[in-house]
Amino acid sequence: MLVIAALALPTVGTNAGEAKTMYDKDCSKCHGADGKGQTKMGQKLGAKDYTDAKVQAAMKDDAMAKAIKEGVKDKDGKTVMKPAEGISDAEVKGLVALIRGFKK
After folding, report:
1. What is the dihedral of CA 29, 83, 63, 18, to 10 degrees?
2. Is the distance from CB of 7 to CB of 16 less than 8 angstroms?
């Protein structure tokens, strides 16, 4: 079902398949293939559940893009998510669209 959702997403400068491939390779380790953040590493780092409509509503596209490009640090300045390296703006937009597609 996730594949269908990813394929149904509009293309935003990069195709949905490319975004899915990047997500599976780099993001799913923590955020999970289903976006729920229930992987061992996701639970340890407090990854958000992207299937939750309230989580989705609280997230702004520009903040997601910034997190992807610049990474995320905790309140003590420790890196909890590394920035994506060598990623284009179109690829970032594709990942944001993919994440939006997790909402139930």
Report:
1. -60
2. yes
The answer to whether residues 3 and 16 touch, using CB atoms and an 8 Å cutoff, is no
Strand ranges in 37-103 using DSSP code E only, listed in sequence order:
72-73, 79-81
pLDDT digits (tens, 9 = 90+) for 48-103: 999 999 999 999 999 999 999 999 999 999 999 999 999 999 999 999 999 999 99
As a whole number of angstroms, the distance between CA 38 and CA 35 comes to: 8
CA dist 57 and 78 (Å) reads: 26
Distance (Å, whole) CA 100 – CA 104: 10
Q: Tokens standing for 18?
A: 């490319």
The residue range of the domain holding 43 is 2-100
Q: State both tokens at 88.
A: 């284009």
Q: Smallest Cα–Cα separation from 48: which of 24, 64, 62? A: 64
Q: How many domains does the chain have?
A: 1
